[in-house]
Design a protein that fits this description.
Length: 429
Amino acid sequence: MNWDYFCIFAPKLLRYMKKILYAIIALAVLTACKKDEEETEVKAGRTVLVYIAAENNLGYEEYIGKKYRNAYDDIQEMKEGVKTMGNNHLVVYVDKPNDPDPEFSRPIPYMLHFYKGELKDSIQMEESLTSDPAIFENVIRTAFTKYPADSYGLVLWGHGSGWLIENDSVKYNARKKAYGGDTGNNSYDTPGKSWMNIPSMAKALSRLPHLDFIFCDCCNMMCLEVAYELRHATDYIIGSPAEIPSCGAPYQTVVPAMFETNTLINDVPKYATSIVDKYYIQRAGGYDVPLSVIRTSEMENMASATKTVLKAIKPNIGDDAPNMTDLIHYYFDYKYYDANDFILKYASTDDYNAWKKVLDKAVIYKKMATMWMTNKSWSGYYYGFTVTEEKYGGVSMHVPQSWTNQDKYSREIQQLQWYYAAGYNEIGW
């Protein structure tokens, strides 16, 4: 090699190689930045799963010559609602029956995924019982793993019966219980023969990411018993202590509400007040819908306060069951009494005021209604009562009665944690 040429061109070659190296480094940095941006875009603010248990008469029903497809109709509302959902995931798990009209028939369970206002995925799922806690857990885990976010919410769509419990978490030919209602054979002839107990639901949720909220779009779920059982799974529970119309929530407005921020307004998350307000104004089917929001972190204090006040009022009740005439209640056969109305009637003024302070920290937002299904359908016959702001508490509780069915309920409630935490066992309830 000619040394003179090397001395002349070597520095130029080195400068050229340096430029190439800098270019490679810059490209690597840009690629990494772009990857980070893509990952930031994928990571949503919130993922909400709507768990639609509609393999029952909510999936399809004919009544007085009219056809009702509540699950289908709600999904259409959701498609409208997602248009303003922002950088969030809405996942909808659907299990509904065979529809007699082929146009609406899609019996195999499936999962829909909406992101930034659009339907992104539609995934077929295996046929199964939505009321099986194992299936429930698997669907939620799949949704939250596949579509991760900074926070999570869950919507329970289907039939609901509050805290009612059966010895088996999944049981055919059982009377109406807790949550779900699955016929097990893709039919729509009944509210469903298979149900999920709330303790089983709580156990499944304990193995999943913590939830910002559980929105119960089903009947009678806002009761102290349910809230206490689910207190570790979620920060807030939203729903109605009463029966709701079969058409459920107006999802075209409720979906955007579910993706509101966690910002506290008067100590209540914005999304919680927004869900309640959007639901409340619909007055679907001519019925009002009483609604409330429970902060689950206060449920331990709620149990302790209830235990204290029940011990205080028990001597005033005597050995017989308390007279519940004219008290606000939910559902047709006196299973759920408004907790505030009951304590207001039987406790001393001082004891009630002390208990009410705790209730107000637990039930942090509520909307009163005066005429839901129980009161509207049967008022003036068997179950008439008057609802006022003073009486309405937005949450129910079990109060034992002397007649046979209530004795059965009083035995069954012993399977829930609330029974012992609220001291029912200590006063002979």
